[in-house]
Amino acid sequence: MATSQPTPAARNVVLTGFMGTGKTTVGRLLATTLDAEFVDTDDIIVERHGPIAEIFSDQGEGAFRSMERDVAAELGAQTGLVISTGGRMMLDATCVEMLESTGRVFCLAADPQEILRRVMGDGEGPARPLLAGPDPAERVLSLLRERAEGYGRFEQIATDDRPPADVCEDIASRL
Ligand code: S3P
Q: Strand pairing of 12-17 and 103-109?
């Protein structure tokens, strides 16, 4: 029977994982390696709706999650993409439904210390509303606990002590 699944070459690669696990950096490299188009769901939302911190403060987190679902629907209708997703996007059942069947999903992982070091050092730490409180270290731990089961559904890629090029090569070799 005919199937509606895209051919392997046209399948998307979806990167999920907690903030600071390197989804965007690795995604860009992977897109170059695969000669695919790179898209970042946060960037798409920012282009259309403005800074994420402002969306959270002015319209609430629910509005942001709804924007993520709209983006998931759009991207799920395309092929040949490397998609770096916002840290919670693939924990949303609707987004998963839109994106999972279009390609392979990999979950980038790092230990909490490393995550904290990266998010505080990448200049976007304060722009991440979920970590903007008085104790980002505790927030990282509690969010990781909350999300462990959701992330655990996907194929894991460890990123601790590995340069992005190494992580990229690892993913490419699994495709
Ligand atoms: C979020 C992660 C962020 C961004 C938003 C919410 C989250 O993306 O989507 O601040 O809930 O984990 P990155 O994982 O790219 O930082």
A: parallel
Task: Give the distance (Å) from ligand 1 centre to CA of residue 1.
Answer: 40
- E strands, the chain, are 12-17, 37-40, 81-84, 103-109, 155-158
C-alpha 46/C-alpha 35 separation (Å) is 25
Please state, in angstroms and rounded to a whole number, the distance separating the CA atoms of residues 90 and 99.
Answer: 8
Q: Is the pLDDT of residue 119 over 90?
A: no
Q: Which domains does the chain have, with CATH numbers?
A: 12-174 (3.40.50.300)
Q: Which comes out higher in pLDDT, residue 127 or 101? A: 101
**pLDDT above 50: residue 53:** yes
**What number is the average pLDDT over the span 87-108?**
96
pTM of the complete model beyond 0.85: yes
Is the distance from the beta carbon of residue 87 to the nearest atom of ligand 1 less than 6 Å?
yes
Is residue 17 within 6 Å of ligand 1 at its C-beta?
A: no
